[in-house]
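Sensor-like histidine kinase SenX3 (Streptomyces stramineus), 494 aa
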Amino acid sequence: MRRPHLGLPTLRRPSLRAVAGGLRARLVVAFLLVAALSALTTAALTFREARTAILKRTQDTAIDSLRSQVNSQVPDYSFPLTRQSQVDLSDRLAKAGRAQHWAISVRYRGGAMMPPVVGDRLIPQGLQKKVHSGIPAFQRLAVDGDPWLAIGLPVTYRESSERSGLEVYALLPLREDEANVQALVEAAQRGALPAVALAAVPALIAARGVLRPVRELRRASGKIAAGELDTRLKVTGRDELADLSLTFNDMAEALEGNVAELRRMEANSRRFAADVSHELRTPLAAMTAVVDVLDEDAATLDPDTAHAVRLISEETGKLARMVEDLMEISRFDAGAAALHLDEVDVSETVRKTLQARGWQDKVAADLPEGVRARLDPRRIDVVVANLVGNALKHGGEPVSVAVRVEGPDGGERLLIEIADRGEGIDPEVLPHVFERFFKADSARARSEGSGLGLAITLENVRLHDGTVRAANGPSGGAVFTVDLPLRHGGGGEV
């Protein structure tokens, strides 16, 4: 039994593995990118906070230590300070801060820095101005690429808090602190890579959870495309994928109902056409018999009556052929068309078709000898007769019929080509020429054809597992090509 005419198209689609693999890769990559970005952001924030804390601790410690040393050393000197006293105080403060590796310079009442090498060259002018105005100050700076901390303290009298005119400056290296910060950076980097690697595990788990309903949706869509319209998805959760599953189920339910209604209507229309055709055959047979008798005596009748008799005979013939075509197409729709295969000489079969209809003088035939195949002779006769008759009626002479074999051994194809020299077929019409009741020219609505000839041709070719194509020839005219598998063997029935 053949499939019903109404059905769902078979869709070409990429494999489920390819689709799921691509989406899984994108989900995992996105998850890892988020994890990497989070790790980098956390590391950057941690680095900034740690660096600030380390430098602030060093800065506070250095300032407190310098202030403490100044408070303990300065009282040993009498003011105003001599130059020698300034040098001596600078040396004592430098020795006291040996653990901090700081360098000390002092200045008294706007005089020169003592010792001048450190102060004049390295202490920023802005910091000196603040200290000179009585404000303690500090500033980070780079010297030859190395980080340093510059500190300036104005010294006041203990009793009155009045400025004494003495200013103490210190330069503290921050190499160890920068090394600690760099160690933090390296530790963060070492920790970020395992964190990103570990994130792949939850990424794969999350991707699997997301892809599971996608796979189910894909599988269900494939079943719907294959005609299993009762397919439904199991809905779990309340997220967007659950909403998608609900929408799919609603769509499938509506599609199932619509297709069922269309199939019911199509079955009714087929049954109606078959019943009407069957019921018409008996009265048509009687009408044809009576018309044949009247047609034989038409020559003895008066001209008007003879014309009427011949008109009735012609229209009765058209009606009989239409009923036969309807009966034939109904058998195809019902899957009742049988294929009676036999080993035949293809060229001889085509030749007999032309001779039976008196077309041998109207058609140029290229029929090589020795082409044999397993075909249904009656149905091939219908195919060739419909195509040649269509070419003679709507094309232009000369009409040619050619039989040939193409393809390698084991995969050979039998080709029957019918061509005319008419105006060809309108490109907009070509996709529709095998549709039922289709007529390219509305002016041909009352032609003797039923509009089913090419549709019957197509169904007969399909029964042989072949195809038929319509095209326009390079030199003009229409070309119909019947392409059949070249099968050999004994007779049989399908």
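The longest strand covers residues 146-156. Residues 2 and 335 are 5 Å apart (CA to CA). ok done for today
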